[in-house]
Amino acid sequence: MRGLYRTLERGGIGVFESPTGTGKTLSVLCSALQWLEDHRRRMERGEGGAGGDPFAAGGANGGSAATRKDDDEPDWLRDYEKDKSARDFAERMKRRLERRRNARRAAAAVDAAFFAGQKHDERDDRGVRKKRARRAGAAPVKLGHDSDSDDDSHAPLQVIFCSRTHSQLTQVVGELNRTSFGGEDGTVNAVAVASRAQLCVNPEARAAAGASAARLNERCLELGKPKAKGERARKGGEGGGVGGRDGADGADKPRPAAGSGCPYLKKRHAAVADLADAALAAPMDIEDLAAAGTRHRACAYYAARKALPRADLVFAPYASLLHKETRESLGINLKGSVVVFDEAHNLVEAVHGAHGSVLTGKQCEAVHAMVTAYVDRFYTRLAVGNLRHLKTLGALARGFAAALGTDKGTGAKNSSNDSSNAAAAAIGEVKSLNDFLFQCGADNVNFFALRRYLRESKIAHKIAGYGEHDDAALGVGVVSDKQTSANHTSANDQAPRQPRVGSVHALAAFVSALASADADGRVLVERGGEFGGRLKFVLLDAAARFKQIVDDARAVVLVGGTLAPIPELAAQLFPDAVPEEDGTFEGANDEKSSAVQHGKIPRTLTTLSCGHVVPRDALLPLAVARGPSGRALDYSFGSRSAPEAIDELGRLLANACRVAPGGVVVFFPSFAYADDVYDRWVKTGVNSEIARHKAIFREPRAAAKVEKVLRDFATSVRNGEERRRAAVAAHSGVSENGSVGSSGVPAGRTGAVMLCVCGGKLSEGINFKDELGRLVVMVGLPYANPEEPELKARMRHLDLSDRKVGSAAEPTAGGKSRGRAYYEALCMRAVNQSVGRAIRHVGDYAAIVFVDGRYAPPGAETGRMPPLGVSSQLPEWIQERLVIPRGYGEVQSGLVRFFRAHAEKERAGASSGGG
Ligand code: SF4
Hints:
The chain is of the alpha/beta class and 915 residues long. Strands 3-4-2-5-10-1-12-11 form an eight-stranded parallel β-sheet. Strands 13-18-17-14-16-15 form a six-stranded parallel β-sheet, with helices on both faces. It binds iron/sulfur cluster. Residues 196, 200-202, 205, 220, 223, 262, 264-265, 299, 301-302 line the site of iron/sulfur cluster. Residues 43-79, 119-152, 227-260 are annotated as: Disordered. It holds the Pfam family Helicase_C_2. This is Helicase ATP-binding domain-containing protein.
């Protein structure tokens, strides 16, 4: 991890690829924390270099003034100050440990009272808090809905550790707690931040919000509003709103009144502060923090925000960090921080997703109806400016609906009411913002002003709150929040239906996206479908938005098991970065560092791809160009559906299943193709041949069914393995399949085969370790449809951009355009993710068969040789072992030898008592 340490010390960008099972996450985390500790000590001792620390949170020049002063000081004074700094540092560490111990004791007392069923008296909290504050000579901490001021000294520099999901972060917190940095005796102050949706502990607010995160935010803020305003709103609808008079605030809903204060925050500030201390004292994951909030009867969301400035280490999901407004709303400050993105293989898509926004035709209809009703009801009480904004909002909703052909008033075909259209595939068309807005008649709308109005007036919530009471009168059905999802194609994947409050928030988010759009924004218009079509704001280029993070942070580190092809990943996210070997920037220079902070000098890029920890003979990757009958294997889109191609694949898989023990995992390029192949195999009897050796399972399209199928697959594999192991123990010989003794082959199956899809649920995050994945078969290359409108627009935009591929790293082979390079990288990342499901730890072993001539280009059939073409975009630990057999015979014999060798090892281990 020297490369990582160097990157953090110097500042810049690091991309580190290391296969699963190598302990990369913990290594990166511990290296970053060790660096943080070292760095702080150095800063305390005034060893920040000639220019001080140019990246400290105080800004590019934050550390330099003090250090410049050193130049004029005599040596003895400098030494004295250094010693004093060291003593101060030690003293602060002592105080911090004491505070951590106290916080843990206090939290344990609350927990004990909770589990004993006693009610914790909040007056006790206040008394203790005041006493502590008096002892420390500080004023009691004040906390409010919109104020997170903290009297503690802020951490001057933080490590912000991001992963895609909360469950991944939970794992990392668990691992941290097993190191000397984490746990109860650890030295690191860590906190996990998340949205109210994860951390709100007020059951009434949650119930009122349903499943809408936006509504929960609004509900929480509404509870925190000054009481007088809330009461006025309830009585006459005159409170709130920009300009003052609008705001019929939900009228007579049976819920806690606005301004009444949340019982988990109001008068519970001491408990919230204690919870913040407890969170810092022993790293907690999101679930633990929320559970502690419930026990302490203290808001976990505000406790996390309160703890945030004092944390050395912040855990945050991608969604909380990638969008500027979201991270600002959570109080995350990237200035001078170290930001680590774990599992970064999909980071480009995550940036696109974080800035995208979806609005359906039905939502447009609902908003138009609600705004109209709201204006009619409160017309006489609305200020002129607010009335104008509301009318604009209504007109926009109508214009958007018209663009989708769902506006009843336009006389256009209403596809949402046409059942024959409901099942039809949506037709997509990508438009520039100008064209789209012109078509909607909205080209003269000031989206910046409208966005500000929506934000400041909270009008979305007011309209929705009013509209909820009037559904029947408006004649608009209930709208599901799920409609805003980009992936709502599966009929089995429906979310519970929610109040249509989501519609107003969806429109507000869409307006916000339009207002923030640059030249790299487009609108995808999809007409038809069950939700009356949809509009999607599409961000074409992730680099411009990611640049804000790169510019603010001291260092940005991407970590993953399968980041290849790394040059393309770098080109998508930081095209201006300079590869380390070519870099001229060495840091520790005021002028240059300041320029870097302002994005004028490219950041240095360090890349590293580590080998696997497994022995060389634990992995056998084969690139297969010809099938059992000698037929050339071509699974490109135009050729793969030929019956001969499917039959050849069937023969190859049946042979492989005969010799592979345990689980075989096959990845197809798409669900549609997997269905075609399966149907043909059933017809031709290939299925029966495979089923003689392995039970067949298929990845379900519906996410809800995946877990059961996986469970059944694992049971089937383990049953087969038990039989195989029993046979190995009972017989001395090992058959060609390495699975049973030569004189006691058990009749029946030796495991199971799972037919999955690249990019499906089973291709990411699922662990096919040990016997669950002894053989992985990759069929073809999962290129996306280049005619898909969003992809086409993105490729075109990248092609037209003036950045060259390879400006951030090695030029792409063949000098392909940036759009083409992006397209290929999408495919290869899907391949690399899929094949990375096997070999999950140091004792694991597996074979990988790449079935397509494109993995083994002509002339390459000479055994081991440097990978060419797409093979050169596989992870290095696969590339360096890749075998390209001369013919199919070598494929089958290679597999036989590989599995036999491991079976013999296993038998030798068993007979020597080693298991
Ligand atoms: S203050 Fe906290 S607990 Fe109360 S509603 Fe807001 S997020 Fe929920």
